[in-house]
């Protein structure tokens, strides 16, 4: 469901980054040969897929050659420092909301300014909630008073600041089973409260020229919802996806013998390190990953729930280096670390990832390593389509062959 989507206003206008919103000039239209800065807000109700969505969008755009900045949620930063709403009186709560808004805008401005200085790549700035979200937690009179005291207006905070707003509807509205599974001991009141917060947050962005609401009605699986998120962002940002995000596409995988470097098209290459963590629950796989280029690394933790026969539910969350190093103390020593080099490229009407497992290799790998090719396509397993790039020497298709999954390859066999 899309709101009023003006094709000119959403991607070519933005306020400047000063604090004064009284006369914020519009950003000039970008010339065709200029690098773009695209400002995206991900918002929504609790347990809507926003956290996993941020990681998936960031990875997708990085693999397509973009630089990506992820702006953290300001409320999480402040509340994580010890502020408790339950301890605040009415005046203190109002001042906290004002400080929160001021902090949010300033943190975003830092990232926006850094993005504007990058000249060799397009830049995606993903904001974990945006400047209008605080308005959902204060009455209209208080919000107007706050904007007056800060000398800002809603044109500055909403209409011209961001290129696109995507609202991820809470699972409590249309996918209640997933909300319950993700929140142990959740009562009925919790579901109702999630719907109420979702509704208030949704209405905070009414008036922005490019708002897209992703609900649960057309998403049979959680991955459908994430795929829909990727599609609406790519469509708006003008990034070609071909079959990668088609609703009936699926991942296919091939085992390669070799490749010809001299014939490769333009590509992005990443160094990746996977470690599996100990899990106390059957059917739950926990994995941490370090991924980067030229020693500039990003870190994620992934939880994969395979206990549901109908759907494997995978959630991802970005973590910082300190958190990543802490999780290294919880690695499963019955599994080896997986090191690989990932090369992402486009050929024909498909995007591909080529993974080379490199030293130190897990015991199950041959000494020369393993080389895989993956893509998402609507052509079924075993089909002669898509025609694979001629600079790759393909041994055979291994889609769904369990022994070639990273989880299986990581096993250390004793005795």
TrEMBL record:
* Start-end of Low complexity biased regions: 11-24
GO molecular function annotation? GTP binding; phosphatidic acid binding; phosphatidylinositol binding
Region annotated Disordered sits at: 1-29
Output the superkingdom of the source species: Eukaryota
Q: What InterPro entries does its record include?
A: CYTH-like_dom_sf (IPR033469), NadR/Ttd14_AAA_dom (IPR038727), P-loop_NTPase (IPR027417), TRPL-trafficking_regulator (IPR053227)
Q: Which Gene3D superfamilies match?
A: Hypothetical Protein Pfu-838710-001, P-loop containing nucleotide triphosphate hydrolases
Domain NadR/Ttd14 AAA: start-end pairs: 39-217
GO BP, sorted A to Z: photoreceptor cell maintenance
The UniProt regions of compositional bias labelled Acidic residues, in chain numbering, are: 1-10
Under PANTHER family, the record lists:
TRPL TRANSLOCATION DEFECT PROTEIN 14
Q: Know the name of this protein?
A: NadR/Ttd14 AAA domain-containing protein
Q: From which source organism is this entry?
A: Mesorhabditis spiculigera
The organism's taxonomy opens as: Eukaryota, Metazoa, Ecdysozoa, Nematoda, Chromadorea
